[in-house]
Amino acid sequence: MNVATIQAIASALMVVVMMLAAGFKLELGQLRAVTQHRSLLFKSIAVNLLAIPLAAWATIVLLDLPSAVGVGILLVAAAPGGATAALYANQARSDLPQAVAMTLLLPAIGLVTTPATVALAADLDVPAGPLALKIAAALLFTQLTPLAIGMLLRSKRPELAAKLAGPTTMLANLLLAAITLLLLVLKGTALLEIEALTWATMLGLSALAIGLGYWAGRPEQASARSASIVAVTRNVAVAILLASTAFSDPVVDATVLSYALLVVLLPLGLSLFWKRSAGA
Q1: Are 251 and 129 contacting, i.e. CB atoms less than 8 angstroms apart?
Q2: Cα–Cα distance between 118 and 129 in angstroms, integer?
Q3: Per-residue model confidence as pLDDT tens digits over 30-52
Q4: How far does the chain reach from its first CA to its final CA, in angstroms?
Q5: How much is the pLDDT for 140?
């Protein structure tokens, strides 16, 4: 079993556990309420599917970054709705139903927009059909199904769901820490080879995502925090899948992994800061 397989299994398990934990705390009515906020939905979709990928493409062109580096950055920027946003939103004590709804809606729309964005911007033949099926299957089995199971248990056995919510969230946090450590240990050499300009570009795009997301969620603070976390937490699993499916250059893979590390650590730090400020 190679490193990529271990990472894929661990990531899928983490997403399943965190969606279960979210389901233990949510009711169907809460998710329905999110869909009624049309202004929030439209702004979030525009930020995640248009503004962030467009900003990434424009930055790559303006800085004249190497082709493989640009593709790696674009892969992450064009993949919205990372499932870990639900975990971060829960930690930040922000709007959890909104974060969960967005992590389900954005990847569903991304089935079409992500391969198309990468193909058009990079002028490459990305196999959109088979890729969309893989993403849809991952969305169904690792996000929708465990979320539905958690919500069903909450509706039938609310006391049991409340008891399981804490330990399940803790397990998701431990899995996230383990995956981050795995990336650092096994891919550390590749990360060190990334140039300073590339790191600066990825940090700048992440900061922009946080700002745009906060704007999309205003005026309510909990909603703004949730939207900013969703915006900066890109769908790394989809980006890695795209990299392995359509590209053979190792620089693309290294860039995706570097960006992946940022979109794990930055929203984690942000959520912990907001959690501390909320408890103060």
Answers
A1: no
A2: 14
A3: 667 666 777 888 898 899 999 99
A4: 46
A5: 74
Q: Residue 197's pLDDT is what?
A: 92
Query: DSSP per residue over the chain, as a string?
Result: --HHHHHHHHHHHHHHHHHHHHHTT--HHHHHHHHT-HHHHHHHHHIIIIIHHHHHHHHHHHHT--HHHHHHHHHHHT----THHHHHHHHTTS-HHHHHHHHHHHHHHHHHHHHHHHHHHHT----HHHHHHHHHHHHIIIIIHHHHHHHHHHHH-HHHHHHHHHHHHHHHHHHHHHHHHHHHHHHHHHHHTS-HHHHHHHHHHHHHHHHHHHHHHTTSHHHHHHHHHHHHS--HHHHHHHHHHH---HHHHHHHHHHHHHHHHHHHHHHHHHHHHHH-
Tokens linked to 162: 């409340």
**Amino acid letter for position 252:** V
> Which two three-digit tokens encode residue 213?
């997301």
pTM score over 0.85 = no
Selection from 253, 206, 256 nearest residue 233 by Cα: 206
Residue keyed to tokens 């140039």: 195
Q: pLDDT tier at 81 (50, 70, 90 boundaries)?
A: confident
Distance CA 135, CA 118 (A): 15
The amino acid sitting at 123 is: D
CA-closest candidate to residue 17, choices 125, 229, 170: 170
Contact between residue 205 and residue 77 where contact means Cβ atoms under 8 Å apart: yes
